[in-house]
Each structure stands twice: as C-alpha cells, then as structure tokens.
Write a structure and sequence with these properties.
nine-stranded mixed β-sheet, 3 domains, Bovine Mitochondrial F1-ATPase, ATP Synthase Beta Chain, Chain D, domain3, alpha/beta, Rossmann fold, Thrombin, subunit H, transport, ATP-synt_VA_C
Length: 467
C-alpha cells in the first residue's frame, strides 16, 4: 500500500523535506504530483526520525509547499531490463531518448545492484582485445577486471573511449557473446553527438547500450547513470551469458555531482570538499565487475576520469587507484606532441595481466616481450636525462641506441591511428621489430633461446627507412 502526503516542509535546491512521515525507506522512489497534475520522480536520500529528505530528479522549479502531493511507492528505483536494450540510447535515469519508444522490461531490478558473494567470484583469466598496442601489449585488459584510464582536461580520452567501443572484442577465435555498455556523464551536446555519430558510422551501435547524461541535465541523473549502466551490464552478463565491457566517462563529473549533492544536504565535507564516503561510493560501483563461477558471462569495467590539474593524487584518481586493478595513465606531453593515444607507459599497469596472457591466451612470448619493452623504455628515460646534461653527442653507443629505440617506440608502438585495429600478433611482432633496434646484449629480460629465435637487426630496417 502506497502512502500519500500533501504539502512540503521546505525546498532547498534539488531537495525537498517532508515532516511527520512514517514507514519510509532509504532510497525509496517517490512521486511528486504538482498542482497542474504533472508528476515528477524523486528518491529518499536521508531519514531523520519522521523527517524525510527527497531528491527530485527533474528539479524543484514550480513545486508548491502547500499543494504538492507526494506518494511513497514502497520500492527503490528500478530499471526495465530486456535484451532489446542493445542498440538503444537512454538518459542517465534510464529513460529512452532515441525516439524508438519504451523498453518493455522482461525484468526490473534495483539500480543499486546486489553484491557478489566473494566465494562465488571466479578469478579473471581471458583477455579482451582493444586493438590498441600500448594497452594490449603492455597493460592487457582481462575479462572481469576494472582498469581505469586517468586522463586530463582537454586530452583525447573521448576519442580513445570511442575507439575502445568500436574495436574491443574477445580473442579472435572466440565464439562467445560480447557487447558494450557505454555511460557518458556530464558531457556537452557536441561530445554526445560525436559518440552517437562514431558508433553509428562504425556499425557497432546495435551491439551497444548507451546511457547519456548531458552537462545541462539534473545532477541526480549523473549520479544514477553509472548505476543504470552497471545494472544493464549485470543483467546481460548473468542472465544472458554475455561478456560485457562497461565504459564510463567521466567519473570526475560523477564525483563532482556527488560533492554538490552532499553539500546541498549539509554533510561535513572531506578532502577537496568531497564527501567522506566517496571511497565507499566509488567502490560500490567498481566492485560490480567480475565473473560468477559456473556462469558464462562477465562484467569488465573501464572507468575514465580526468585528473584536475593533471594531479594523480587528487581524491578521485587516488581513491580509484586503491579500488581498481591497475590504471592506464595518459600523458599531456605525448598528447602535445601529437602522439595518439598518449599512453604514459611507465606509470601504467594491469595487475591481472600476468594471468591472462601467454600460451593458451595470447602468445607464449607475450610476457617476455612486455617485460623487455618496459625495461628498455625505462632506460630511454635515463638516457634522455643524461643527454640533457652532457649532450647527446657524449652518450655511449648503447645510450644512443636507446634514444633511437625510444623515439621509434613512441612513434610506432604507442602512437597509432584512431581507426587502426591491431591484432595481438601485430602488436607482438611490432614489439620484436623495435627491440631489434637495440644491441642483442641489452635484451636481458628474456630467455636466450627466445632472443635467438626472434631477434634480427634486419627487422628494424623499416624504422631506419622511416626517418
């Protein structure tokens, strides 16, 4: 039985306060009926005795303190779910905005999700190929993993997000079902149009569920968007056995909406003004990635966030790094040099990579090639630092070789066209070509038999001809 209350005690921004309410539940959905008969939706975000605070999704403009009627529905916010969601575009609150009508739900689920039993989790193994060498080769994405991308304002993370949606797939010989859930939060209209256009032109939209929250939409939608996206992902993964990749951008916009919402409730702010529960709030979404034992589906996450002032110690990237299994860091210096994607290799890593590559997954030599490329690129930074002090002419022959390797590695391995989709074989062969620029004695992170089989200075001739 629903409860209906007439009148509001107070209005504060997107929040309304009701007094003398009994039987209410936290996160319960309410309907607010205005004087003109129109209805708005909200949810209970705070309960203090018989006082209830409701956050109104569509804003509080036009609400009357005396004549607004509020109906408690007795249930949390739910999302209508169906396999027909694929190819559809929704608002941040899960309402269709593509003009194709409502989704007739085969199921309805609480957008806050249900926690996975840790005992029921299966350890992630198989990889997801993105077609981007720097990711596939050096920080491989594993099914069931959460691997964030740390970017900066004005950098090419939107372009990278679109490329990931267009190119990502399971291993080349896999016949398992794969789809993508994409959530954009706080984006401008031109960015939203860019995403829709790229997905349509590439032909992948029919395999994508999109949730779009624009910058001028209510902040509550920004808070709901990732939860709606993850609810759709869990339904497709665990009920229909699909492997789902969830890409969410920009989590910093989400955190700022959460900060604004927390401030409007009068909560005591924590670091940088963010609420003290930011860590647990982010964890409640990131931990919805995973694989359930006995099932065929999986949920993998790539949250994208911008670091204010490129500060990796900012609360949002800092807390995200504690929760997730690695990170992909974009570098502004590479971006300014026209290198795309501007992946900063040395601070980036995938903690689950070692268990999802190698023989039976990618290629037997994948781990060795990745280790050697990391080690060699680290030496490049040392050689560049030394060269800036004493001059490049005074460097040893090996240091000069590392400078050449570093330049070609950035131009050919890290950098690639936004429409270039490389296989894992292409990536590893390119890695061997680049390592062949170095003296054989420098390949100390590899087995001698592997070097003997694959090392050949002639492989590097094409880089010398490029210069």
């Amino acid at each position: 039985m629903s409860i209906q209350i007439t009148g509001l005690s107070s209005i504060n921004g997107p929040l309304v306060v009701l007094d003398h309410v009994t039987g209410a539940s936290y996160d319960e959905v309410v309907e607010l009926i205005l004087e003109n008969g129109t209805t708005r939706t909200g949810r209970i975000v705070q309960i203090e005795g018989d006082r209830v605070v409701v956050q109104v999704f569509e804003g509080t403009n036009g609400l009357s303190l005396t004549n607004t009627r509020t109906r408690l529905t007795g249930k949390p916010m739910e999302l209508a779910l169906s396999p027909e969601m694929l190819g559809r575009i929704f608002s941040g609150a899960g309402k269709p905005i593509d003009g194709l009508g409502e989704v007739y739900g085969a199921d309805y689920r609480d957008i806050n999700g249900k926690p996975l039993n840790p005992v029921a989790r299966e350890y992630p193994r198989n990889y997801i190929r993105t077609g981007i060498s720097s990711i596939d080769g050096l920080m491989t994405l594993i099914r069931g993993q959460k691997l964030p991308i740390f970017s900066g304002s004005g950098m090419s993370h939107n372009k990278l997000a679109a490329q990931l949606v267009c190119q990502s797939q399971l291993s080349d010989d896999s016949d398992e079902k794969f789809a993508i859930v994409f959530a954009a939060m706080g984006v401008n209209n031109d960015v939203a149009d860019y995403f829709k256009r790229v997905f349509e032109e590439s032909g992948v939209l029919e395999n994508v569920v999109m949730f779009l929250n624009l910058a001028n939409d209510p902040i509550i939608e920004r808070i709901l968007a990732p939860r709606c996206a993850l609810t759709a992902a869990e339904y497709l993964a665990y009920e229909h056995g699909m492997n789902i990749l969830v890409i969410m951008t920009d989590m910093t916009s989400y955190a700022e909406a959460l900060r604004e919402f927390s401030s409007s409730k009068g909560e005591i702010p924590g670091r940088k003004g963010y609420p003290g529960y930011l860590y647990s709030d982010l964890a409640s979404m990131y931990e919805r990635a995973g694989i359930v034992k006995g099932g065929t589906g999986s949920v993998t996450q790539i949250p994208i966030l911008t670091m204010p002032n490129d500060d990796i110690t900012h609360p949002v990237p800092d807390l995200t790094g504690y929760i997730t299994e690695g990170q992909i860091v974009l570098d502004r210096a590479l971006d300014q040099r026209g290198i795309y994607p501007p992946v900063s290799v040395l601070p980036s890593l995938s903690r689950l990579m070692k268990d999802g590559i190698g023989e039976g997954f990618t290629r037997a030599d994948h781990g060795d090639v990745a280790n050697q490329l990391f080690a060699s690129y680290a030496r490049v930074q040392d050689a560049r630092a030394l060269g800036s002090v004493i001059g490049e002419e005074e460097l040893s022959a090996s240091d000069k070789a590392y400078l050449v390797f570093g330049r070609e590695f950035e131009q050919h391995f890290i950098s690639q066209d936004s429409g270039e989709n490389r296989t894992i074989q292409d990536t590893l062969e390119l890695g061997w070509d680049l390592l062949s620029l170095l003296p054989r004695s420098e390949l100390s992170r590899m087995d001698a038999a592997l070097v003997e089989k694959n090392y050949n200075p002639d492989r590097a001739k094409r880089f010398r001809s490029d210069r």
